[in-house]
Amino acid sequence: MDQAGISRRSVLAAAGAAGLLGLTATPAQAAATPWYPSAKFGVFIHWGAYSAAAWGDAKHAAEWYLYAMNVTDPARGTGTRDHHLKTYGADFAYDQFIPRFTARRYNPHSWVRLFEQAGARYFVLTSKHHDGFQLFRNTASDRNSVRLGPGRDLVGELFSAAADTRLKRGLYYSLGEFYSPALGTAPRNPYTGAEIPYTGYRPVTDYVSQYEHVHLKTLIDHYDPDILWADGQGYHEFGGGPIFRPKTWDWRSDEILAYYYRNAAGRPHPKSVLANDRFEASHADFATVEGDNKKYVLRPDPWEACLNIGKSWGYNENEDPAKIKSSVQLIRLLAEVVSKNGNLLLNIGPREDGTIADWMSSRLLDMGRWLRINGRAIYGSKPWIRAMDGDLCYTRACGAFNLIPLHWPDGRLLVPGDVPINDRSRIRLLGGHSRPLPWTRTADGIVIDLPRHRTDDFTEEFPAVLSATDW
């Protein structure tokens, strides 16, 4: 992952985007329905050779291990560099983790079942992260999971496992890489400075057309993703040398997105596909807001908060327990993001063998348990004119106005008087008893009398949903 600005571009269906990029959309193609704004919850998956290194610290997340090895400035954080030297020695190159990335216990069907049980409507898998290691077969490079490491098409197996489910399937792709001979940043031994091989690399003279676009066209042609999620697009220097791309650079992303949209629209049964706002292209379907401590705001166009459960996106044996969000925190974040017209893309980082740690899967299962009761206020919902008042969130869905207090009130809930509740409205607690709750309008607002105890099998720390209808 890397930080990026927020696009203001509006969401368009595949056919509309195709028109923007100079393509012709037929009426049938224009009828493709964008599914994304209704989905609300997806699972992000960071998995790769860094999962075998499985180590990060307060300064660098585990999936940045390759870059963090090269940071020499203590102010920028040398914890990974020091850890690597002590644990593996100066002559152990990052690429020696590739054979240790085995996927030997990878069961894509169990992943899919977990995502479904979590209530997710889509997932996004890292097909290539910043270390340049690809989880799919392609003709541009041998630095992939079929030629090296697991000896398996990890993307293909997960997409096949999800093919007959309701899950939409997405692929993350890092446009640039930490180090690559094709970008003028050949990898070096962090301790001696000597140039070292880039395992599986096939020399190219044009990184974009002979490598990056070949990868992306392979992903489009062979896996037909519903989302393309770009990252690693900008020039950066964080103490371990310049990364991702030269300062002056053109990813020629309009070309690849035109190819993507044309592929989706030009078929007997067109489908809606989307691309995020990190392609440095003339179009994006949704904006991405990454990481914690963001001040989310209500936006008119679809956007996505991509969040991690802990500090690292890739699996981290050194994860600080204090940094791991609880299920309650995650559900509160989901309610806040959805009230502001966003989707939550929640990340997990499987181990190198393909297993998912219990502290990750248990949180996903808690999300699913909560959504099975309260999902009618989340899926397909739309925002009200205000997203929140204090810690009270609002959504509109299925003919109901939904109130989601992030903390269970003590006996009564006071709601601002201008919310769309009228004399005909009946207010019920989702997952609780079916009788309407008593409420009165006062000079201070609307006062709703609540049950003394929760009746939906959740503790009082979990958000509840009050649904107001006129029927």
From TrEMBL:
Single GO BP term: fucose metabolic process
Gene3D superfamilies with a match to the protein in the record: Glycosidases
EC number, UniProt record: 3.2.1.51
Keywords of this entry: Glycosidase, Hydrolase, Signal
Enzyme class: hydrolase
InterPro entries in the cross-refs: FUC_metazoa-typ, GH, Glyco_hydro_29, Glyco_hydro_29_N, TAT_signal
Any GO MF annotation of the entry: alpha-L-fucosidase activity
Top-level taxonomic group: Bacteria
UniProt cross-references to Pfam families, sorted A to Z: Alpha_L_fucos
Domain Glycoside hydrolase family 29 N-terminal residues, every copy: 29-375
Any GO CC annotation of this UniProt entry: lysosome
Annotated signal sequence range: 1-30
Family, as annotated: Belongs to the glycosyl hydrolase 29 family.
Known function: Alpha-L-fucosidase is responsible for hydrolyzing the alpha-1,6-linked fucose joined to the reducing-end N-acetylglucosamine of the carbohydrate moieties of glycoproteins.
Name of the molecule in the record: alpha-L-fucosidase
Annotated source species: Amycolatopsis dendrobii
